[in-house]
What we know:
This protein is mainly alpha-helical.
Amino acid sequence: MIEFYKDRQKKTLDPLLFSSVAEDWASKVYKSGERERDKNKRSQLRKFYDEVLRLNALAKMSPGDWDDIHPYVNMLIAKVVYARGRNKVTREFEDMLKSCISHVQEDKDLDVFANFFEAFMGFYRQYGEN
Length: 130
């Protein structure tokens, strides 16, 4: 389980969230893609990342519209389950996404998720052409 906050009430981020936590998940997701051939391609993961960035940009532009944006954040769960059903991603990637989305309760949480995903993608890039 990924935890965004060291102290959720104070919104104090885990100081390792964007470094070792993101790197550990990148390694775990990459290794699961090696075991299950042709899964977790960077282009496939990038589609999810781009969608998170799009939703985060919408939330920043229109903070009063969070109640309209939040359901679309949660819809990413359906999309990742569908991608897994089509053998495009592994359970590990699905678990990571679900864990992150479970912490998104307000627009600030979505911003943390977007930054975590950015760090994850940066670390994932080190694994070559997968």
